[in-house]
Design goal:
alpha+beta, 5 helices
Length: about 130
């Protein structure tokens, strides 16, 4: 009987550890975030040069640039769409905010302001 009790306790303890591990993994999963920037190009060559500089800062900070800037935009509903849209995927909203507030991005703002006018920039968190 002592052996059966030990086996039963080991099964219960293993199940409890499994549940705790699953809860911990589930709690760690953060939803992805997408940084969307609507742009009006003031200087095409300057915008291309700025894009070549800003993309590596996003990649270094963990972002995945979706290369939508310069892609075709099709209006479906609402107000007219912007002329250009840049989208970057991030592992979390906090990661996007950290890059947005980084010195790497802020150092490039004078160059951006000569090449592009930002209409609107925002991040949206995906719902899991």
């Amino acid at each position: 009987m002592n052996t059966k009790f030990k086996i039963a306790m080991a099964v219960v303890a293993g199940a409890a550890l499994g549940v705790a591990a699953m809860q911990g993994l589930h709690a760690q999963a953060k939803p992805k975030a997408y940084l969307v920037t609507e742009i009006e190009v003031l200087d095409a060559k300057g915008a291309d040069a700025y894009g070549a500089l800003i993309r590596p800062t996003q990649t270094a900070a963990g972002g995945r640039v979706l290369r939508t800037a310069g892609g075709k935009i099709v209006e479906f509903e609402g107000a007219a769409p912007p002329k250009r849209v840049a989208i970057t995927e991030w592992d979390s909203l906090e990661q996007a905010q950290a890059w947005f507030n980084s010195a790497a991005r802020k150092d490039l703002m004078p160059q951006r302001d000569k090449a592009e006018k930002v209409i609107r920039s925002y991040a949206v968190e995906a719902v899991n």
